[in-house]
Each structure stands twice: as C-alpha cells, then as structure tokens.
Design goal:
eight-stranded mixed beta sheet; alpha/beta; 555 residues; binds cobalt (II) ion; binds 3-phosphoglyceric acid; seven-stranded mixed beta sheet; single chain; Alkaline Phosphatase, subunit A; 16 helices; globular; 2,3-Bisphosphoglycerate-independent phosphoglycerate mutase, substrate-binding domain; 2 domains
Length: 555
C-alpha cells in the first residue's frame, strides 16, 4: 500500500533548517579567462570548495544523467530542476518526442488526430524555436514533423519561426533558416503549399516565461495570427540577414517580421479552420502563448481577432492546468516529487526566486506542477524581475533581494526548508557579455554568503548546488579545449549552457558529525540530490529514488 510517510533516518536528526541554494548556470570548468566564475571574486563558493573536501563534490548535470537523449546534450534548467526535485531520472521531452516521431506513434495519437481534422480545408501552422539547441525544441524534430504531417494529409503548411542564439551560437539562425527553406522547397515540389510565414527573436517574440512580459507574446500573436509586424519581407533568409544587419539585433532579439506575397499580403495569418502546433517540447516558454491560443477568456493583451482553430502543443505544458488540452506527445509523468513527500512529512517549505526563474524552483522542482501541495505548509515568493532589459545591464539582478528573503525566512524559524534559485550566472551568461557575467557571479556569491550566515545563526544546514553550467565557460572550443576563432579572428562567444558538471556543497552547524559525501557514487548527478536533502531533514528517501550522496561516518 502506498504511503507518503517517509522512514526516519537511523542517524540523522529532524528539525534542522535546511537551506537549498541552486546557483543557476554555475558549472565547474578549467580556470581560464573565459571562466567567469574563476575570474570573478567568489570567496564564499571558493571556501566551500577548498574548506572541507568531504563536503564538496561535483555532480553530473547534462545528458542521460538528467534524462536527455545523449551525452552531447547540455543541461538546462527544466531537466535540472526536475531531477533535483524528483530524485529520479525521467526520459524528458526531447527524448519522448524522438521516440514518438521514430515509432510513428505521434501520428496515431489523440493530439494529431484532433488537428488533422483541419487538414482538408485549413492550414497547419507550426510555431516554435528554430535551432538544434535541444533545450526547447530541435530542428530535426521539426523536419520530421513537417514530413510526417504532409504524409498524413497536411496540404498547406506555414511555419512561424523563432530565432535562437541563446542555446546555440549567435548568428546560427541564418543557417537554420536555410536548412528549413530547403525542406519547405522539397515539400513544395511534392505539391504541398509550404512556407515560412513569420518570425522573430525568441527573447523578443513569443517565448517569454512566468508572465514576465506579455508584450513579448503579443508581438508574436500580431505576427503569427494577425499577420502584422513592423517588418515585411518576401523571404525569411533575407529577413533574418537584413534585420541582423540593419537593426543590429542578435538572433535572440530579432524584431518580429512577416513574410508577404507579391501583393504585400501576409502569406500565413492564422484564420478560422486552421490547425496550430507549438513545436517546443519544453514548457516554461510555451505556457503563455498556449494560454493566448487556447483560452476563451483572456485579458493579458488585446488579441483583436481570435480565430477558431484546433490547437495542440508538442507536449502538454502544464498538467495541472491541462494546458493545452490537446498535445502530440505525452509529457513525462513526474510524480511523488521530494517536495510533495516532504510536505506530507511535515516539512514547512519556503521557495523564492525572481520572476524569470521563479517557476524553476517551484513548477519545475515540483515535477512541472503549478501551485502548492499544501498551502498551510508552503510559501512561494516571487520577486519581480526587471523586464524589458537584457541582464548584462543589470547583472546583479535580484540576487540580494532573493538572499534577504531567504535570510528572513530562515531567521523566522517558520520553515524547515528554504529553497532559492540565484539566476545571475545563467541569465547574464546567456547574454554573452563576459564582463557583466563576472559581475553576475560575484553577486551570486555574495547572495550565498547572506544565506550561509543566516543558516549559521540558526544552527541549520546548507546544500549549495547548481542546475547546469553556463558562466564557467563563455567561449566555443575545439575538441582539445582551445577557443575557436571566427573568420575575422575573434573568439566565438558561447551564450549557451555547457556540458560541465556542477558543484554541490553541504555544511552548517546543524550538520551531524561524521556526515560526508560517499565515495561510492562517483557518477552521481542532480537526481541524487533529493535523497540527500531528505536525509538532511532526517528521513530516508523512497526506495525508487536515486541514492543519497551522503553517509554518516562512525567516529
Ligand atoms: C532559456 O530558456 O532561457 C534557455 O533556453 C535555457 O535556460 P534555462 O534552462 O537556464 O532556463
Ligand atoms: Co539558462
């Protein structure tokens, strides 16, 4: 019989305040000038590393350790926080979509059959991130879906692209558009009326998250649905090249554009009777567009015209909200997360970050579930992010505010677990601005110090870790680790995450004597952290959880 009751840990006490700090985008890499964590002054994190060797180690944060298809897949916040919170490794969206496409099951599913009803008279619109980054979407999956949809009856297809430059190198958008254009030309040869209809940079068009800025989604709506944008082009390759040059925007921030025909009419607005698929598998940056496409009552911006469409997500993005109702591939069913167990076992939990990472320590941590398990035992605090800026101009972000909230929560004695995400290394790392990323890392380190001091004051325990790498390597490298130069001899800035492992450190006055990292889990990854944290709360993790990283030595 299933029970939420966790067994008591035979050696570790209950009742200690445990701070769990996730440094976003904070990996471990060789110390050189492109390692912003190394260059920055980070005395607190340094002291954890050099202070007590049995209380600091590295864990895997990419590839199969977090449920991604291969070891070439860098880590990301979704899969990282899923693993940290769930304590088990689930096949993630990227992998599930791969299976569904390869087996053809995708075309037999409820979602595809639902949208297929529109193929006779309507257009199939595919909206999503165009790159091979593998974090939110993958180009090869889009290519297979285009082929499969046309073989399964789609006669008119419009693709609404969002350029990347964040999970892949800036400037790579041109190549991805060229590849897509070739595929669409092939489809046209087969008699399918297929073309790109609109586009824009992912950070400026459509892919906002956690309701940071609805204006982003509105710009997408205007281009994709209404066929209206400040820029009009006859083809998308020209659009991306011209906009990069003339507006000086990078791939992430390209302004919205629509493709028009010879008479200047948009070639692919979304109209009554059409089918729409958002092709991203990752949830956070699809929830807002999904709401705008799906909800009848919607007041976040004026949609002007709301077409009667059949809409499906590549995945369902929020199981609790059932959003969207229809989807092509079932998401991983992440259940019995550590957060849910701990709440059932009386652990009062506080979680906090700023808007752009708030859902990471709540929604993703809790297995892609929004809201509280038990509001009487949990408090989640969101600090509003600065919006409308790139974070290199504000690299300290809200680190101090987050740390102060955590400190207050710790000192209040109202919580057993105080969990935060510090976004700096990641969000500033994604801008590719090395100087700013150094400032960001210092700010995150200072925030850690504030939290450690509070833990010291109450005699608690800390667990400091990260969800994936980013700031520790800001340059694209060749196989031997040397920075790669572009044609003009400049280094190629790496805006994306990395394949690096991340640190985990434990400590605090409340840590029982003899607690240390085990030596027999050398391949440990983020999914091993949940059992570790449960131990520090005085419990043994459920038997199907990935094993704990700690042991208690007999003195
Ligand atoms: C983003 O969505 O900002 C990036 O693609 C991934 O960053 P995250 O996984 O750190 O959120
Ligand atoms: Co990131």
């Amino acid at each position: 019989d299933f029970s939420w009751k966790l067994e008591d840990h035979p050696k570790l006490p209950k009742g200690k305040t445990v701070a769990v700090v996730v440094l976003d985008g904070w990996g471990e890499a060789n110390p050189d000038q492109y390692n912003c964590i190394h260059v920055a002054q980070t005395p607190t994190m340094d002291s954890l590393k050099t202070g007590a060797p049995e209380k600091w180690r590295l864990v895997r944060a990419h590839g199969t350790a977090v449920g991604l298809p291969s070891e070439d897949d860098m880590g990301n916040s979704e899969v990282g926080h899923n693993a940290l919170g769930a304590g088990r490794i689930y096949a993630q969206g990227a992998k599930l979509v791969d299976f569904a496409l390869a087996s053809g099951k995708l075309y037999e599913g409820e979602g595809f059959n639902y949208i297929k009803e529109c193929f006779d008279k309507g257009t199939l619109h595919l909206i999503g991130l165009l790159s091979d980054g593998g974090v939110h979407s993958r180009l090869d999956q889009l290519q297979l879906l285009l082929k499969g949809s046309s073989e399964n009856g789609a006669k008119r297809i419009r693709v609404h692209i969002l350029t990347d430059g964040r999970d892949v190198l800036d400037g790579s958008s041109v190549g991805f558009v060229e590849t897509l254009e070739k595929d669409l030309a092939n489809l046209r040869e087969k008699g399918i009326d297929a073309q790109i209809a609109s586009g824009g940079g992912r950070m400026y068009v459509t892919m906002d998250r956690y309701e940071n800025d609805w204006g982003v989604v509105k710009r997408g709506w205007d281009a994709q649905v209404l066929g209206e944008a400040p820029y009009k082009f006859r083809n998308a390759i020209e659009a991306v090249k011209t906009l990069r040059e003339e507006t000086k925007a990078n791939d992430q921030y390209l302004p919205p554009f629509v493709i028009v025909d010879e008479s200047g009419e948009a070639v692919g607005p979304i109209v009554d009777g059409d089918a729409v698929v958002t092709i991203n598998f990752r949830a956070d940056r699809m929830v807002m567009i999904a709401k705008s496409l799906e909800y009848e009552d919607f007041e976040k911006f004026d949609r002007v015209r709301v077409p009667k469409i059949r809409y499906a997500g590549m995945l369902q993005y929020d199981g609790e909200l059932k959003l969207p109702n229809h989807y092509l591939v079932s998401p991983p069913e992440i259940e019995r997360t550590s957060g849910e167990y701990l709440v059932h076992n009386g652990i009062r939990t506080f979680a906090c970050s700023e808007t752009i990472k708030f859902g990471h320590v709540t929604f993703f941590w809790n297995g892609n579930r929004s809201g509280y398990f038990d509001p009487s035992k949990e408090e989640y605090v969101e600090i509003p992010s600065d919006s409308g800026i790139t974070f290199n101009v504000q690299p300290k972000m809200k680190a101090l505010e987050i740390a102060e909230k955590a400190r207050d929560a710790i000192l209040s004695h109202k919580f057993d677990q105080v969990r935060v995400n510090l976004p700096n290394g990641d969000m500033v790392g994604h801008t590719g601005d090395i100087e700013a990323t150094i400032v960001a890392c210092k700010a995150a380190d200072e925030a850690v110090k504030i939290i450690l001091d509070a833990i010291e004051e109450v005699g608690g325990i800390y667990v400091i870790t990260a969800d994936h790498g980013n700031a520790e390597d800001m340059v694209k490298r060749n196989k031997t680790g040397q920075p790669l130069l572009d044609k003009s001899g400049n280094i190629q800035i790496l805006t994306s995450h990395t394949l690096q492992p991340v640190p985990i450190a434990i400590g605090g006055r409340g840590l029982a004597p003899g607690v240390r990292f085990r030596k027999d889990v050398p391949g440990g990854g983020l999914a091993n952290v949940a059992a570790t944290v449960m131990n520090l709360h005085g419990f043994i993790a459920p038997s199907d959880y990935e094993t704990t990283l700690i042991e208690v030595a007999d003195n």
